[in-house]
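Incident review: delayed structure delivery

Summary: a single-chain prediction request sat in the queue longer than the usual turnaround. Root cause was a stuck worker, restarted by the on-call engineer. No data loss occurred. The affected request and its eventual output are reproduced below so the record is complete for anyone auditing the incident later.

Affected input:
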Amino acid sequence: MSLECRPISTEFAAELSGPDLAVPIDDATVDAIWSAIDRYAVVIFRDQRLTDAQLRDFAARFGPLEIGRSAARPGRRRLAIPQIGDISNLDEDNRVRMLDDRRRLDSLGNRLWHTDASYMPVPVVLGMLHAVTLPPPSAFGNGETEFADMRDAYDTLPEAMKQAIDGLIVQHDVFWSRAQIGFTEFPPGEREQYPPSPQRLVRVHQGSKRKTLYLSAHASHVVDWPVADGRLLLWDLTAHATQPRFVYSHTWRVGDVVIWDNRCTMHRGRPHDEQQARDLRRATTLDTASTLDQAA
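Output delivered after worker restart:
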């Protein structure tokens, strides 16, 4: 089936239409979607109605799938398929979680600018979110997801800054990102399960061959620098990369499937009415090597 592309911004986000993602897609369609992702980094399909199994099968056409930190924990889950992340404010019985629920508080770290799973030795590539249930608009916000273009952010740095940062290695730690919002109550053994991982600060994006900043709220400090100096540099770079000119804000509709490339974007969730159900399902594809093994 042919794929139609309507750019939302010149080089960063686009709406795609044509295929029904609930139906298996052929290799030509996979290649066409990859080409759009390599150019725009964020692509949106509207009016999709997918079961979790259909979302898993569609996502698996783009690489092996991650089982995320929450799904890897023991105990009962709301969703049956471990490769489908539960990006909701609902508990195992589909009730809205209380405001002091620990899993809810942990998930609030997603409101910081971040790159998914950058704290893993081999991080992830594509993220895919499918909107199942959305709360009504409210004074608290509408639960938008914002994406920042890290390729343009790198391109617009002064040349002297590019040269200064190109070889730097940064330690990424999920417990550092959660500590920034005051959350430290993790299950026993989880800190040992997810130790910090070093990542390149500047990467070459394989699809577009453009250099990109690799930043995240998980980025704790620059290796071999005094911690304070490294954190100040990372904060300055994040402030630069998240200026409005680099950001696309996605307003969700039920049935949306949004795909983004974690190698060259950051994203964050925005507030919404936490007394109302919000249910998004995520699939994430894995990379094949550490950023330390990839060219800078």
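Verification: The helical segments are 27-40, 52-60, 102-107, 150-155, 159-165, 174-179, 190-193, 227-241.
Action items: add queue-age alerting; document worker restart procedure.
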